[in-house]
Amino acid sequence: MTYSVRSATVRFGSTVALDDVTVEVPGGSVVAVVGGDGAGKSTLLRALAGELALDAGTVETPPKQRLGYLPASSGSWAALTVTQNIDFVAGIYGLAGDELAARRAELLDRAALTPAAGRLAAQLSGGMRRKLGFIMAIVHRPALLILDEPTTGIDPVSRIDLWRLVSEAAASGTAVLMSTTYLDEAERAAHLVVLDSGRVLVQGSYDRVRASFAGVVTQTGRPVRADWAWRRGRVLHEYWPGGDSSTPANPPAGSTAVAPDLEDIVIALSLARRNTVPS
Amino acid sequence: MKAMIVKEFRELARDRRTLGMLIVMPLLLLVIFGYAANFYVSSLKTAVVGPQASQVTKMLPSFFDVTVTEPSGTQADAETLLRDNKVDVAFVTGQTPVLALVNGSNLFAAQSAVAALNKVGNQVKTQVLYNPDLKTSWVMVPAIIGLILTFIGTIITSIGMVREREAGTLEQLAVMPIKPSRVILGKIAPYFLVASVDMIIVTVLGILLFSVPFNGSPFAFALGAAIFLFVVLGLGVFISTISQTAGQAIQTAFFFLLPQILLSGMIFPLEAMAAGVRWIGYLLPLTYFTMISQGIMLRGAPIASLWLPFVVLTVMAVVVFTGATLRFRRDLAPGRPASPARGEQAAAEPVSTT
After folding, report:
1. Mapping DSSP to helix (H, G, I), strand (E, B) and coil, where does residue B135 land?
2. What's the confidence (pLDDT) of residue B325?
3. Chain A residues with CB inside 8 Å of B340's CB?
4. Record: contact B175-A65, CB cut-off 8 A
């Protein structure tokens, strides 16, 4: 089963948060939405979750009983223990008794949260709290799982744990749509959606996104055009889009071209849009 | 330090609720409570019954505002008028000395009446009903029960509801397969139960510690308390829908709570207030619960004689609870907030190099 938003437009007053966005989320795969702050990632996820009404377009989602959602906030009740949080959500989805006990034990074990089962959610670390939120989102085996920046602000080890859980959910047939600001982890998704200012800059598999990327990224110590450059570690990268008469088509002689990774591609496309579209 | 002062003023200017409390509240408190703070009752609703009712009525000073003159009436009729809170004082003629029955459940009116009657000497025999020793605790305990219910209903409930919004779990509930009405009922049921237990404890303690009588029907009392609870729980839900944080909820609840304490007749008698502020008292639910609780506990009044506060509270419960529930449902329904989601404000900027 494939779930989708098609030609979705959402406005907040005069701000267009989503502009004619179409995204499909097939069952059994992970679709990652990436983009900078204000790109429209959360708005897209909330629209698919049915939490936000569209100004235009359509949404195709399973019924609420088959939907799992981890919002950008903690996603758990701070004054309840880990077990109580899971039991509360499971109860709403109709899980009880032995079935619930078995499912809870399985998920706590997979998330390495069994030792913390009796702790209050407020006393968990950021990573543990996100894992708890993830468990609560999948406890009822949803057909569509929506995760709003599940790994933001948590340590690398917890990120690995969470990604393992996400992969397992997808492997069991769940359609997963997640937003992330970590482009290295987005590369692992089957399908990428790059958003900027509410518009889809590019989408497809990582290989397809790379293949469709036009222009050259160079590495430099002193960029020719500051508004086309960004810092990567100890050096700067500069984008030469080419094919646009308003900017130099090619880098100056002697520049060092680099193979752009996803972070380069997302930043380059965002800068190209901002530097060429009148604000 | 200048930067700190400027920053503080800028923050304050954007916090309209606090600004309102700083500027409007002192003015309101001064004007409203200045006119409300009055213990002196200038006239007493009075009934005169018995064969010499007409003659006695003519002899009474204007302080006794005679609203009922019934020559065929008996002492039992006079007591019924007092029990139903239709008058503060009832004179029973046809005996020597004339019997003056005073409604002790209206403390300040009763104190004024006793003071005035004591000046008459032995022409009148004074008998205070429902609160013979004119104890303040006897009239305060029934009112405090209402105040405690108001406190739990507005402040505690609104904080509990708004916590969902603060923690971001409200948006999680919004996408779950649970009806908004069940969310609301599930949220307020514990507060309803806790408030009910509190009410029972306070009532029993009031009776045990202060010897406050309970002369009426416990069923009628429980019914009045339940209706009143729906009003104040509705207020709590309403406050939560107009507050983003627990701090805001407390601030807003304070706006609702303070007038209930000072203008409901609990401390200052309504009849002693200036007409300009008295009407505010008649808009407050605690005013009507106090009428019910004092009526049932002290005077043993039946529901039939308390129909007005019961009807007013029921109308308030329906209006407030329905309105608050509809507003809360709107928060749970797919909507379009006035601003983008958190974290979607600024755009990434390219590096600045020189």
Report:
1. coil
2. 87
3. 12, 15, 17, 38, 42-43
4. no
Residue environment code for B75-113, b if the CB has 16+ CB neighbours within 10 A, otherwise e:
bebbbbbbbbbebbbbbbbbeeebbbbbbbbbbbbbbbb
- Is the confidence metric ipTM above 0.90 for this complex? no
CATH architecture group of domain B44-129: 3-Layer(aba) Sandwich (3.40)
> Could you tell me the residue range of the domain that residue A42 belongs to?
2-207
Give residue A238's pLDDT: 92
B328 contacts B241 by C-beta, under 8 angstroms:
yes
Residue A109 is encoded by which pair of tokens?
């074990």
What distance in Å separates the CA atoms of residue A136 and residue A131, rounded to the nearest whole number? 9
Radius of gyration of chain A from its Cα atoms, rounded to whole angstroms:
21
B266 sits in the region (left: phi over 0; alpha: psi -120 to 50; else beta) called alpha
- pLDDT at position B18 is 80
- For residue B336, what pLDDT band results from cuts at 50, 70 and 90? low
Q: Report residue A2: phi and psi, to 5°.
A: -110, 130
Cβ pair A194, A201 in contact under 8 A: yes
The residue among B161, B172, B345 with the most chain A CBs within 10 A of its CB, best to mutate, is: B172
pLDDT tens for residues A42-74?
999 999 998 888 999 999 999 999 999 999 887
Strands of chain B, DSSP E? 44-49, 64-70, 89-92, 98-103, 124-129
The domain boundary residue, chosen from A207, A230, A256:
A207
CA distance B163 to chain A (A): 10
Q: Which helix (H) or strand (E) holds A239?
A: strand A235-240
Is A18 in contact with A8 (CB distance < 8 Å)?
Answer: yes
* Contact with chain B for residue A226, Cβ under 8 A: yes
Instruction: Determine the distance from the C-alpha atom of residue B209 to the mean position of all C-alpha atoms in its chain, rounded to a whole number.
Output: 23
Tokens of A243: 């094919």
The secondary structure of residue B68, as a DSSP letter, is E
The structure's pTM equals 0.78
3-state secondary structure A62-90: CCHHHEEEECCCCCCCCCCEHHHHHHHHH
pLDDT in tens, A185-241: 888 899 999 998 899 989 999 999 989 888 889 998 888 888 899 998 888 999 988
Contact A52 B172 (CB under 8 A): no
Q: Answer yes or no: do A159 and A231 share one domain.
A: no
A46, A121: one domain: yes
Q: What percent of chain B has pLDDT over 70?
A: 94
| Contact state of B167 with A74 under an 8 Å Cβ cutoff | yes
Q: Are residues A144 and A236 in the same domain?
A: no
User: What gap in Å lies between CA A187 and CA B226, rounded to an integer?
Assistant: 59
CB count in 10 Å sphere of residue B218: 12
Angstrom distance (rounded) from CA B243 to CA B245:
6
Domain with CATH 3.40.190 in chain B: 44-129
Residue type, B26: P
List the single residue in B with minimal CA-CA distance to A266.
B348
**H-state helical runs in B127-217:** 136-151, 157-167, 169-174, 180-210
DSSP, collapsed to helix, strand or coil, labels residue A251 as: coil
